[in-house]
User: Which sequence fits this backbone?
């Protein structure tokens, strides 16, 4: 990922939405048929635009895994007649920010600009989007960096655990692959592979846009048409839904060190499920990764088994799981695995209380407005909302949805989703005490 965001933008980024104010979101449709969500705010001469292109590393062909990730790293390494240094200098002279990032489900383009330089910054973003150079020298350098990162990851027990879990959980699906490829596939990537990835991952009929700041709907429409109209249409289909394939049990991957990493989980819940909000609150009470959750209290505070433990509803675009991770001393792995099984039974049996639910509602409804800390955050959230399939008014009703969840809802979804007998554990280390 290449990020260019000069410090001169810091004051513009400091614009904050009032804590309890509603966010006025306008739907925008351009002359070329692109759609966007806009939060117009004229008090600061700054605009943020976030574009999400669904697909991401899922679109890598077999044998060319890592192509989209490498391509994204190269988009700011020169475009048109500008080499990498000239491109960076041009952005810096405008106090502008352009960044690209890639994940397994999407590619993102982030644009930040002062109003007076907005069009020039957008032109530089368009140049990177439409006319990347993909110079052989830059490709060789980026490939070497990605290979170095892969070599480090191959020795990292957390990465090893995550990749092994995904391989078992999504067997035969793109989710089973590493988003940044393997040493073998990345070493073999050519400029032609990178060009093909560019044509596949950045398409005009798969783009979601959020914008916030000093810009009108008409101005945004003109910008998007200029930025996106010449992109190609998608020709590669998105992947099918991934069934969860990991069987119950334990997989041990030997790795030297005093601790073991444990990744664990089972099938989850799609984000568009009617019970998703209740499941979200259930997880925040049980293992949301903060102090005060059930798992943190039982495993860290009461027994000192780990520095931290967290679980999540990993509801992605094409597959879902309920999973968690922690590290513990090798000698205590058996104890931790049994305790996790016991805690899963506790959750499935409807043990969450009204007091637990009231406490998490207070936390979630109070913390949510703090996410909207500035135009950049708002633009990103507006694009992400579309990517996740939320309605345009979601940000303004989300806290009401949280408050509406009842203890009966929590117990119903716990019984429905939590499967103690289906847990699979991937353990990377030298574990002791396993049956």
Assistant:
């Amino acid at each position: 990922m290449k990020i260019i965001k000069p410090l001169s933008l810091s004051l513009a980024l400091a614009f904050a939405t009032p804590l309890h104010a509603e966010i006025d979101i306008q739907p925008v449709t351009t002359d070329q048929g692109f759609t966007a969500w806009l939060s117009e705010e004229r008090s600061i001469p700054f605009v943020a635009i976030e574009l999400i292109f669904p697909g991401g590393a899922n679109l890598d062909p077999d044998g060319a895994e890592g192509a989209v990730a490498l391509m994204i790293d190269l988009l700011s390494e020169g475009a048109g007649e500008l080499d990498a240094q000239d491109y960076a200098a041009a952005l810096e002279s405008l106090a502008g920010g352009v960044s690209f990032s890639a994940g397994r489900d999407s590619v993102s383009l982030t644009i930040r600009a002062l109003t007076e330089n907005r069009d020039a910054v957008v032109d530089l973003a368009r140049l990177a989007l439409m006319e990347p150079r993909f110079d052989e020298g830059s490709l060789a350098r980026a490939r070497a960096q990605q290979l170095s990162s892969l070599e480090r990851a191959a020795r990292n027990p957390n990465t090893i655990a995550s990749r092994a879990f995904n391989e078992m959980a999504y067997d035969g699906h793109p989710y089973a692959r590493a988003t940044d490829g393997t040493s073998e596939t990345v070493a073999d990537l050519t400029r032609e592979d990178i060009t093909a990835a560019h044509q596949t991952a950045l398409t005009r009929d798969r783009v979601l846009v959020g914008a916030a700041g000093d810009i009108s709907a008409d101005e945004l429409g003109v910008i998007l048409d200029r930025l996106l109209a010449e992109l190609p249409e998608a020709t590669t289909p998105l992947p099918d839904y991934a069934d969860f394939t990991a069987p119950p049990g334990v997989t041990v991957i030997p790795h030297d060190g005093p601790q073991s990493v444990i990744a664990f989980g089972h099938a989850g819940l799609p984000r568009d499920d009617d019970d998703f909000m209740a499941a979200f609150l259930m997880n925040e009470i049980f293992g949301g990764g903060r102090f005060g959750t059930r798992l943190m209290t039982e495993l860290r505070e009461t027994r000192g088994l780990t520095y931290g433990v967290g679980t999540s509803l990993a509801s992605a675009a094409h597959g879902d799981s309920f999973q968690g991770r922690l590290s513990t001393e090798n000698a205590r792995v058996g104890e931790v695995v049994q305790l996790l099984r016991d805690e899963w039974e506790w959750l499935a049996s409807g043990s969450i209380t009204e007091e637990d639910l009231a406490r998490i509602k207070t936390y979630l409804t109070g913390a949510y407005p703090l996410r909207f800390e500035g135009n950049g955050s708002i633009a990103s959230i507006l694009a992400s909302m579309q990517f996740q399939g939320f309605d345009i008014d979601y940000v303004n009703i989300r806290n009401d949805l949280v408050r509406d969840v009842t203890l009966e809802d929590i117990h119903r979804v716990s019984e429905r989703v939590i499967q103690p007998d289906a847990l699979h554990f991937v353990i990377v280390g030298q574990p002791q005490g396993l049956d």
